[in-house]
Amino acid sequence: MAFFSxxxxxxxxxxxxxxxxxxxxxxxQHLIASSKMIDPGPVMKRVRIYNAFxxxxxxxxxxTHVLEFIRLAMKPxxxxxxxxxxxxxxxxxxxxxxxxxxxxxxxxxxxxxxxAQTLPEAQRRARNLRADLEGRGVHPDVLKFCRAELxxxxxxxxxxxxxxxxxxxxxxxxxxxxxxxxxxxxVLAGDPPLLAINPRSTVSExxxxxxxxxxxxxxxxxxxNPTAHEARIHWVMSKEDAEDLLSIVSLxxxxxxxxxxxxxx
Length: 265
Description:
The chain is mainly α.
């Protein structure tokens, strides 16, 4: 079995121990023990993981326990209580694993992939995606999701995170805490809605409001909990699809920005 190189171990440990997206200290302690590695003790998270990896690989002359740590760390069920952590960490980790010819899929499976031989393709893809979207004049709240870590294996995650930002905007505008279709129904489908995109004074305007609610509801449904649906797990999205979908999300953001809150009797 091939070994991880020093720079590969550093990158993997850095992703798993990332300050914002990575594992907590208690999670690292548990995973090191579960992977049957020696815990170097409480130091910086990425250093703790790296030292445990190096000691295990050097002592056992294989990377079996390092791989087991990654498998255990990336089990989706571990993140039931905090699901928003999973995809950003998986994206960071996959960028680190690219040069080792490995990838963690959305179901948490660690599988072989074509090894990267140059600078991360994800960075070029992210720059190209952003440039194309800037040319389309998409909403600034969408451009922030064109990051390398979100397009490290495919464009799905950038779109998924952008869709989440729509829900965040509706909650911010209304003070609600709902999510998904219930949030859309309360914000856009009431009579009157909490947010109206037009005066709703004619049949056409009321139809437009209803259609907009259906658009947002359908967009949410398309990207909700993708790990629970096999068809979405294996959805390899092209850059063209991502650009079109992010343009839709941009339209939704612009209409929400311009929406008003009708008086409620």
